[in-house]
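Holo prediction — flavin-adenine dinucleotide.
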Amino acid sequence: MNDVIIIGGGIIGAFIAHELSHYKLKITLLEKDNDVANETTMANSAIIHTGYDPKDGTLKAKLNPIGHDLYKQICKDLDVPYKEIGAYVVAFDDNDIKTLEELKTRAINRNIIYEELYPDTFLKQEPNLNPEIKKVLSFPTTAIIDPMQTCVALIENAIVNGLKVFLNQEVKAIEPIQEGYKIKTQDKEYQTKYIINCAGINSSKIAKMIGDNSFDIIFRKGEYYVLDKKASYLTKHIIYPCPSTMGKGVLIVPTVHGNTLLGPTAFDVDDSLDTSTTLNGLEEVKTKVQKLIKDIPFNLTIRTFAGLRAKGSIDDFIIYENENHPHFINVAGIDSPGIASAPAIAKYVIDNFFNELQPKENFIKTRKGYYNFDSLDDETKAQLIKENPKFGHIICRCEKISEQEIIDCIHRPLVPKTIKAIKKRIRPGMGRCQGGFCAPLVIKILARELSINPKDICYDSINSNILKQESKGDDHVE
Ligand SMILES: Cc1cc2nc3c(=O)[nH]c(=O)nc-3n(C[C@H](O)[C@H](O)[C@H](O)COP(=O)(O)OP(=O)(O)OC[C@H]3O[C@@H](n4cnc5c(N)ncnc54)[C@H](O)[C@@H]3O)c2cc1C
């Protein structure tokens, strides 16, 4: 019998599992996909907002500033990127300036650092901004992270501290039993005292499994362009327009890896699997970002993608214990600023729904991050290659990722078994060629390190195998 089962391995499930792993509990995480961080946590703007945006009186307004303040230390402990690059909210006219005043009042009330800037200052900082911009509200402590790496790092560290993770386990039914709940997946059953429903866009489906119809989830799609690292000169800060009722608008966001994101749109869709990009959506992004920044080099686009916000039918995060089913906790409707709030959401869940937890004396707080060989100086690189020549064997030419980095990433507590899982962790395939050159080599390394037939290596989900039969192939990896 488990003490707690967490349903869903996105950033919310990951933070809750990590927080619970500080205590003497038997915890399990069930994830329907072949890897964690495979839905909304994989496709978003990756901004740690400071918390000036949510409306007063909401859980979002309460948890976002706390989450923001917790991130820096967590990222340090887990050795994952966190860059405080700052954000500009820009105003073009009197209406926008009025909106900036509202944001400023919220920032003052929530102790959020801000600065008011005028063209003489902000155009020096950001010369590519549209010169018609009249005023900027700057939030210098706004940060960016890599949500996929952060999610994996939280789960890796929680596993070291006792968490059990089962992938490819889609929760299909839940039955109350005397001591708690029986959870049925497609092929197994689990028993638990507590359930925490962190199933993102499927969270209302999970709640309905115990007859809880009190909320629904709307799927709000956001489409993006990804620009090559060559476009990183465009902006140092995140550039936002003034927010509207549909959200924070279409932004320009530098990523921790040096790319630039342009997006997202905000359209409601009916299909929870619809992460397609569309001509209309991308045209909208193009028109809107060109109002913020001059001369955007769209010819440097290396990819487009879309993510689905799990927008709750109640306009706030939906976090509560079901009144008829004790210890069944919904953590739903976690749209933006869900990533920024996630550490605070985890603490909120534990403070409000768990009693008298016993801390573990031997909790292991830190984790060693992945190698980033390309970022090292020449002397260190030469030393590492001397110690292990696999550091000198570059597999992904675009992102300059070596064989040894991939090997290190495979032999981790949460073993990545697919091409996409490796890509999400250390980025082979994220560059200009999008995996055209490195994917076959990644398959070979995965097969060799995990003693699996290359034909059984999948791109992502089960049955997404790429190879049908042996061919001459590339012989660089033995
Ligand atoms: C376009 C866009 C931009 C955004 N930008 C930002 C931003 O800049 N900053 C910010 O703070 N937030 C942002 N967000 C919001 C943020 O991405 C989400 O709040 C966050 O990722 C939600 O995480 P989650 O764990 O709740 O959901 P998910 O990441 O979707 O995880 C849910 C998990 O549950 C699993 N699951 C579902 N059903 C089942 C089942 N039956 N059995 C087992 N497992 C199941 C799924 O496979 C998935 O892995 C953005 C969102 C979008 C879409």
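READOUT: The chain has three domains: 1-81+144-216+313-369, 87-140+218-310, 373-456.
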